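In this section we walk through a basic example: taking a raw amino acid sequence and producing a predicted 3D structure, encoded as discrete structure tokens. The instruction is simple. Fold the sequence below.
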Amino acid sequence: MNYKLDFTPVIDGLPSLLLGCLGTFLLAICGMLLAIIIGIGGVALRDSALKPARWLVIAFVELIRNTPFLVQIFFIYFALPLTGIRLDPTPTAIIALGINGGAYAIEIIRGGVQSIPKGQMEAGLALGLHKAQVFRLIILKPALRAIYPSLTSQFVLLTLTTSIASAISAYELTSVSQRIESESFRSFEVYFTVTVFYFVISWLMMRIFALFSARYFKYPVK
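The resulting token sequence is shown next.
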């Protein structure tokens, strides 16, 4: 084997790779925010008295969880233009990530909500709180505390899933690395470096989530 390692193209392309990391972070954060909104809204509809709303949420969750993310992002990017809806790669990636993450977030958050004793909900209603206030003030925070590890793990997975957005040329780390590799043909060096970058991104996100948990979800010790 006469292959000689040459990281020169990687070093030359380092500014572009760092910008790609920033693009990955932005896609992940925007996708997470959208997923949280969909997750909380979906839980509220899933447990509502409106049967059509419940069935709609169930159908949404089953459809998204049982189809590949690549197919979902292709559908939004290539199929929706047939209806007159055209989106650039980055908004398409954010919407696809939000929808995909939201479907999983619905089930995770719903599991946390169901873990709250009904007595607490009944006590809130007895105090004169509306159902929306009971959900926001009594149910939501304890539920988020209970499901926080599962939810953050799902969001780290969502961050790694941003790499699939390179299939529609969204600006993120994998798409940048593909361009560098196609120009230099140094596949091992490029993708080894990208692997390290993704590991660092995941580690940083886990540290950020841990700090957030310690700040907002720690039980009082006294």
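Looking at the output, two observations stand out. Residues 14-46 form the longest helix (33 residues). The chain has one domain: 7-213. In the next section we compare this with other chains.
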